[in-house]
Design brief:
It comes from Psilocybe cubensis (Psychedelic mushroom). InterPro entries: Fumarylacetoacetase-like_C (IPR011234), Fumarylacetoacetase_C_sf (IPR036663). The chain has 304 residues and is α+β, with helices and mostly antiparallel strands. It is 14% helix and 36% strand. It has six helices and 18 strands. The strands form three sheets. Strands 1, 2, 3, 4, 5, 6, 7, 10, 11, 13 and 16 form an eleven-stranded mixed β-sheet that branches. A five-stranded mixed β-sheet has the order 8-18-17-14-15, with no helix packed on it. The N and C termini lie far apart (63 Å).
């Protein structure tokens, strides 16, 4: 009995060390949290066909079991109602600021989306009538791929050096943006972010939350966007003006970050905003946003 007890104890740390958190519907039509089992030729969690079931709370105490379940449908990594706040950063890459004709910010530019904006890695992005054509203007839908940070424990007035101790892991998100409502008719002379970015379903994210056990340094990751298979954005998080440590610290200045909060950290250059002849997203366009060592979200624009 003593030998058996020792072997079980030694096995527990392996099971407790999460890798790629996914939330999914299995073939039994039940919802699970799991640690994605990757195919041998990819680190894209959206390609996973199965996951080891997780019991407990991924924002608290949990165990990764040896029970594997087949993935039928990947959901967003956390239910919308578990995400307390969707925090966002604007113009966090020099080249993106330049293409938009905006001065390089000296401080992070912060805004928020409602959690109803969150969407799964694969469901359509709904565009309701008010964001389509409306009399004298044409829809100006744009894409933005972003590194997403997920908070695991409360943070208030923390330093840059403390910041990563409060991070569960990283995901990729699509900050869907309507430039017409954001800029042209959004409160000139300054942008009005809420109307241009906060509609339901305008923040697909996933396909997983990749633990800080795997991604030690979030400033070394390639990120990209493809529209209908054509690459539009391709950059690295090394080029962020304000890195993850500083953003988490800055957001906590006088405001409490809570477990489940997510931070969209800004997009690199390559969006349609600022182009002489922009090719705005249209009904049926398929947008893929990706982040190295995390995976891809692939969502179609759908007029509703």
């Amino acid at each position: 009995m003593r030998l058996i007890t020792i072997s079980i104890t030694l096995a527990l740390p392996l099971l407790a060390s999460a890798q790629r958190f996914v939330r999914f519907i299995s073939t039994d039509n039940k919802e699970y949290y799991g640690d994605a089992i990757l195919p041998s030729d990819t680190t894209d969690a959206s390609k996973s066909k199965s996951a080891r079931v997780i019991t407990g709370d991924i924002l608290g105490e949990f165990t990764i079991t040896n029970q594997a379940k087949t993935i039928k449908t990947l959901l967003s990594p956390l239910p919308n109602e578990r995400v307390r706040t969707v925090r966002c950063v604007g113009f966090n890459y020099v080249a993106h600021s330049e293409e938009a004709g905006v001065s390089i910010p000296q401080w992070p530019i912060l805004f928020y989306k409602p959690w109803t904006a969150l969407n799964t890695p694969s469901d359509p992005i709904p565009v309701t009538a008010g964001y389509q054509t409306q009399g004298n203007f044409t829809s100006e839908m744009d894409y933005e791929t972003e590194l997403v940070v997920v908070i695991k424990k409360k943070a208030f007035n923390i330093s840059d050096d403390e910041a990563l101790n409060h991070v569960l892991g990283y995901s990729v998100g699509h900050d869907v943006s309507h430039r017409g409502w954001q800029i042209d008719r959004g409160g000139q002379p300054q942008p009005q972010y809420s109307m241009g970015k906060g509609a339901d379903g305008w923040a697909p994210w996933g396909p997983a939350i990749v633990s800080t056990n795997i991604i030690k340094d979030p400033q070394t990751l390639n990120l990209w966007t493809k529209v209908n298979g054509v690459t539009q954005q391709n950059d690295t998080t090394a080029n962020m003006i304000f890195g993850v440590k500083h953003l988490v610290s800055f957001f906590s200045m006088g405001t409490t970050l809570l477990p489940g909060d997510v931070i969209f950290t800004g997009t690199p250059s390559g969006v349609q905003l600022g182009k002489a002849n922009p090719n705005w997203l249209k009904n049926g366009d398929v947008v893929e946003v990706g982040l190295e060592n995390v995976g891809t979200c692939t969502n179609a624009i759908k007029y509703t």
